[in-house]
Amino acid sequence: MRRLFGARARLRWIHLILGGALSMPYFLLGSVLVGPFIGNRNVFTSASLQFAAFGVALPIAALTAFFPLVRPLSVGAVRALCGVPRGQLADGPARSGQARMRTAGWYTLHLGVGGIISGMTLAVPPFAGTLVILPLFTSLRGVPLGLPEVLNHAWALALAPLAGIAMLVALAACAALAGELLARCAPVLLGPTPADRLAAAERRAADLAVRNRLARELHDSVGHALSAVTLQAGAARRVLDSDVEFVREALTAIEETTRRTVGELDAVLGLLRQGEDAHGDLPGPTLDVLDDLLARSGVKVAYVQDGDPAARAPEPVSREAYRIVQEGLSNALRHGGAAPVSLRIALCGEELEIVMENPLSVRAPVVRPGGGRGLPGIAERATLLGGHAEAGAQGDVWRLTARLPVGNAGGER
Asked: Where are its TM segments located (predicted)?
């Protein structure tokens, strides 16, 4: 009984009746088209003519299902009323030809089966109800209700209520079977096509790339600021009582570093709040403000440039180069302390070359739980631009080298 009259069966029955309601405009159009072929007779005078009009209506319904928005509307109804798991149905309009063909097949099936069940739902309950109450109201026997002549017999009249109940149960069984049929066909006809799965995979890959890019921005910006602030604060603490001027300069550097980092952090978090709009270019500092970074990095940097890279490098390359230098300085601060750093940035043909060196520290390097993401992040930035980066000990120095393609670097940005 639960399969016939349970909550799921009732919802699927409503879904079928919805299909019948949607089929009515097409049925009326089909009756108009069938009219000239039957001598303009009224199709409602014959059941065969009604089925003919219904048969003409279904291909018309299939044609209208090629509109892309038919699929999301159908999917919404199936999810709400048929109990089909969400992951088995496609999201969004039907874009490809295969998806539209499947949607047209579903729409035709829904309207066809729903129209039949709706017709039965309208016709069977009144007739079955009449049979149930017929033995109690003898006056109904004389009313022209189209009842069979056999009901004039006493034995048939006694069995009429049972026949009425059986008809209602049969109607519920037909509706349950039809609802089960549509629920089984929905994942096949409204499920994701190979093109839908590919598009979903591309969206997931794009989202993952954006998250990784934002993570790199936060790591490089905040990580460098914390390293610089830690070094400046430690140096200021050691000379707090003996060199007030140095302490004042250190506190000024800490203030400016944190203010700049908070601005960069706000920009990245703003992109996170924008959701899908975060797929555009990330705002951020470029080589134009590299001198300011070097001046307040917390370590002495001997900087040499060749070819005016700040003015001639394209903006995306300039932005990534700034982050690579920033992360290189963070590593130098973290592992080398206050040891001086040499930095060279040069335009060599169609490449921007970054070379950073600092002496290896005699003390044990700072190891963070789980390892750091600085050097892999530098490699990822270079790879995304079509370049490459490498870092490692060479003799008694640590060297970071990155090469980024810039195309025709002699042109305007």
From this structure: 12-39, 51-70, 109-134, 154-178
Tokens of 69: 């928005």
Nearest Cα to Cα of residue 175 among 117, 239, 262, 244: 117
Task: Decide: helix, strand or coil at residue 305.
Answer: strand
Could you tell me if 123 and 171 are in contact, meaning their C-beta atoms sit under 8 angstroms apart? Answer: no
Sign for the CA dihedral angle at 308, 313, 319, 323 comes to: negative
Phi/psi of residue 366, nearest 5 degrees: -75, 120
Backbone angles phi, psi at 315, to 5 degrees: -60, -45
The closest of 201, 202, 384, 127 to 281, measured between CA atoms, is 384
Residue 364 DSSP label: P
pLDDT band, very low/low/confident/very high, at 372 (cuts 50, 70, 90): low
CA 400 to CA 321: how far, in whole Å? Answer: 12
Phi, psi of 339 (to 5 degrees): -65, 140
Q: In terms of residues, how long is the chain?
A: 413
Q: CB atoms < 10 A from the CB of 268, how many? A: 20
Domain ranges of the chain: 2-192, 200-405
Tokens of 56: 């003409």
Residues 16 and 178 sit within 8 Å (Cβ to Cβ): yes
User: What is residue 347's DSSP assignment?
Assistant: E
Superfamily name and number for 200-405: Histidine kinase-like ATPase, C-terminal domain (3.30.565.10)
Q: How far apart are CA 413 and CA 406, in angstroms?
A: 10
Higher pLDDT, 206 or 327: 327
Give the integer Cα–Cα distance in Å for 341 and 53.
86
Alpha-carbon distance 96 to 140, whole Å? Answer: 58
- The answer to whether residues 77 and 46 touch, using CB atoms and an 8 Å cutoff, is no
Q: How far is CA 98 from the centre of its chain?
A: 21
Please state whether beta strands 301-306 and 341-348 pair in parallel, antiparallel, or not at all (unpaired): parallel
- pTM score: 0.54
> What is the Cα–Cα distance from 87 to 111, expressed in whole angstroms?
24
What tokens appear for 168 in the block? 């209602």
Largest CA-CA distance found in the chain, in angstroms, rounded: 121
Highest mean pLDDT among 75-84, 238-247, 260-269, 369-378: 75-84
Residues 6+ apart with CB under 8 A from 393: 360, 399
SS3 36: helix
Q: Residue 57: is its pLDDT beyond 70?
A: yes
**240: DSSP letter:** T
